[in-house]
From TrEMBL, chain A:
InterPro entries: ABC_transp_permease, LivM-like. It comes from the Bacteria. Signal peptide: none annotated. This is Branched-chain amino acid ABC transporter permease. It comes from Azospirillum palustre. The keyword Repeat does not apply.
């Protein structure tokens, strides 16, 4: 609970205070971002952009749980990675179309989310983090041992296929706009959830769970729903990633991957809508840059982690909001 | 001689049980350290696995760089790790006590990445061999199985450490202060006990236990930068199963799950990696606070 009041995020009512001028500004801003997203593949390398978008959606999904539900999952790689495996397998071996493959991958993550969620929400705080971590490690070992995942090799050379039988995804631009579409759908779902009555109850639970219970909310059910939604969207990101990179590997289900998405969200700003996107873009860019140097990546990532926790807990988006006192904290 | 037990040759059965007991010794030592730290700091030390690895590496470096052998490494490596831990607590962790405990977890996660990444950068991922000390070479034929001396020593040593830690915390005056400070640090401070120093010492002691486990592990497993990271997640599951409430609970769960893992290796080897996690899920369904835990 104090996790959020400490990071300077206030849940109550501020969104409703947004002045008309502010919301117009926000709309113009959103439109500008959208235009930029449509134009950017002509300026930057599309594969890099698609990686950013996949991880941005992954981080947004994770943020739904920690930022709005106050639950720190340390095992989100399980959902991301299993969706990647299921999508890759169904597309490559069963010969399904990419949209069906992604859908099945997402459904698999949703199912896994129900399973893990109903176990993990029995505990809170640190225990919740440890339980999700342990459960995701179980998925890691399963991915290592099950025959269809091909152990250390992973599933390689997944065909990108033809979307809806019309768009050939081997064309980088078609692939990019598909990923952008998936990202926007996911982001819209999260935006809608956060601004819905359900999202308000979730924030109430985060701030004061006993009080939410006394108001008659069955908090377990809300938390489980948030968990499943978060897992599902993480799966959507993972499945899309498998199509983009034509690959599903053990890397996607490691605890390091779970840690990475925590870092993206922390760096960008927990509990803000834009934060995880900014964080994902920064971390992916940084890793691309570091890959070309001889610097050890985990050490740099670890240092950023420590620095964020010690002095930069609001993250970039949270810091901007606090500085400029933007009315609408959640978008 | 007995032919088979449940269709398993006794050699294989007892061999796996011994391996399970060895693994259990490490689970117990590590979850003991985690529980001691958690009791006092309310922090789950994610860096525990990295510090266990560091203990093994300090022993290896002492041997290869300075020619200092196992018996000196046994006290020296935990001391080095403990001092390192004390420095971490003083400079970094102590800034977070007023915040949500999750930040402690995140900070130690970052530290784990740094420590592990640094060793990996320096020494690569391949394991370095560490010889068994001369005094513990060879083994005993127990009739039903062959017991390598070193493995027997690891079990005995970890039992001694776990039991003396338990006695120190439950039966001595210092332990009483510690338990009191866990319950109510403000009141204990008011009685003139230096609680911040106690917290530092507790963290140092907890990670020194991890360092000691690292030295004990060095001759059995190879000394590798990755040796801690997978182990720590199993230990987290052990801690969830046992519940953080009691020191004894952490130790017993550690040994018990090690043995159970060994048994799984005999009867259904494919599941041996995940059996601890499955048990965790089952325990959470039946008793969410853990076997020895209290609801908080």
């Amino acid at each position: 609970m104090s996790l959020h009041s400490q990071s300077g995020i206030r849940a109550s009512g501020k969104a409703s205070q947004a002045s008309a001028a502010g919301s117009t500004l926000a709309r113009v801003g959103a439109l500008a971002v959208l235009v930029a997203l449509l134009a950017v593949p002509f300026l930057l390398y599309p594969v890099f952009l698609m990686k950013v978008l996949c991880f941005a959606l992954f981080a947004c999904a994770f943020n739904l749980l920690i930022g709005f539900g106050g639950l720190l999952s340390f095992g989100h790689a399980a959902f991301f990675g299993s969706a990647a495996y299921v999508t890759a397998h169904t597309v490559k071996v069963w010969g399904l179309s990419p949209e069906l493959g992604i859908l099945l991958g997402t459904a698999a993550s949703a199912f896994l989310g129900i399973l893990f969620g109903s176990i993990a929400i029995r505990r809170q705080g640190i225990y919740f983090a440890m339980i999700t971590l342990a459960l995701s490690q179980m998925v890691f070992f399963l991915a290592l041992q099950l025959p269809f995942t091909h152990g250390e090799d992973g599933i390689q050379a997944v065909p990108r296929g033809v979307l809806f039988g019309v768009f050939d995804l081997n064309n980088p631009l078609a692939m990019y706009y598909t990923v952008l579409g998936v990202f926007l759908i996911g982001f819209a779902i999260i935006w809608r959830t956060v601004h819905s009555p359900f999202g308000q109850v979730l924030k109430a639970i985060r701030e004061n769970e006993p009080r939410a219970i006394s108001l008659g909310y069955r908090t377990e059910r809300y938390k489980l729903m948030a968990f499943v939604l978060s897992a599902t969207l993480a799966g959507l990101a993972g499945g899309t990633k498998a199509i983009v990179f034509q690959l599903a590997t053990l890397t996607d289900v490691t605890w390091q991957m779970s840690g990475e998405v925590v870092l993206m969200t922390l760096l960008g700003g927990m509990g803000t809508l834009a934060g995880p996107v900014i964080g994902a873009a920064l971390v992916v860019t940084l890793e691309n840059y570091l890959a070309a140097t001889s610097l050890p990546v985990p050490v740099v990532i670890g240092c950023i982690f420590v620095a964020c926790v010690l002095v930069f807990r609001r993250g970039i988006a949270g810091e901007i909001q606090a500085r400029f006192g933007k009315q609408s904290r959640s978008g | 001689m007995i032919g088979t037990i449940f269709g398993i040759p006794p050699q294989a059965l007892f061999g796996q049980l011994l391996l399970g007991l060895i693994n259990g010794s490490f689970y117990a030592l590590l979850s003991l350290g985690l529980a001691v730290i958690f009791g006092m700091l309310n922090v789950i030390n994610f860096a525990h696995g990295a510090l266990y690895m560091m203990g093994a590496f300090v022993a290896w470096l002492l041997l290869t760089q300075l020619g200092i052998g196992y018996w000196w490494a046994l006290p020296l490596a935990p001391l080095v790790v403990g001092l390192f831990g004390a420095a971490l607590e003083k400079t970094l962790l102590s800034r977070l006590y007023k915040l949500d405990h999750l930040y402690g977890l995140l900070l130690t996660f970052g530290l784990a990445l740094i420590v592990e990444g640094a060793f990996r950068h320096q020494y690569g991922v391949s394991g370095q061999p560490y010889p068994i000390p001369d005094a513990l070479k060879g083994g005993q034929n127990l009739g039903f199985m062959f017991l390598p001396n070193y493995r027997g020593w690891v079990v005995v040593a970890s039992l001694i450490v776990c039991i003396s830690t338990w006695i120190a915390i439950e039966k001595t005056k210092l332990g009483a202060y510690l338990r009191a400070a866990t319950e109510n640090p403000v009141l204990v401070q008011a009685f003139g006990i230096n609680v911040p120093r106690m917290i530092t010492l507790t963290y140092a002691f907890g990670v020194a236990l991890a360092g000691l486990a690292g030295v004990l592990a060095a001759p059995i497993y190879q000394v590798s930068p990755l040796m801690g990271s997978n182990l720590i997640i199993v230990v987290f599951a052990v801690v969830v199963i046992g519940g953080m409430g009691s020191i004894l609970g952490a130790v017993l769960t550690g040994y018990g799950l090690g043995l159970l893992e060994g048994l799984t290796k005999v009867f259904y080897p494919e599941a041996s990696n995940i059996v601890v996690f499955v048990i965790m899920a089952v325990v959470l369904m039946i008793k969410p606070a853990g076997l020895f835990g209290r609801e908080r």
